[in-house]
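Posting this for the archive.
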Amino acid sequence: MTTVMRSLHVALLTSDLEHSAGFYRDILGLDMAPRSLNFPGYWFQVGEFQIHLMQSEDWQAPCPCPEKWGRNPHVAMQVDDLSSFKTRLLDHDYPVQMSASGRAALFTQDPDGNIVELSQA
């Protein structure tokens, strides 16, 4: 039987590549990863996993369940200090929705509305 071994990356679309890159680089503090492809994009490293940002001029992320962001397509990452990330997001005018489950996690949206979950380690 064949086995899926690990997750490699998630690809997110963005209508403004530079603005979204700033969110992942400057707000979340992710390191950029090398890429050799010939179309616009940025790769960011998260442990052994990557987030790939790719340009799509008219992209707006779907949010079919706006009252609970965790019930929408999202990417989740573990963080060491959730409170500090919450403060940083709010200081830069990014929306924050705490997890409805009561666990130490929050949801935010990147500049294009892609939902990102941050969970306390």
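The mean pLDDT is 95. The first strand starts at residue 9 and ends at 14.
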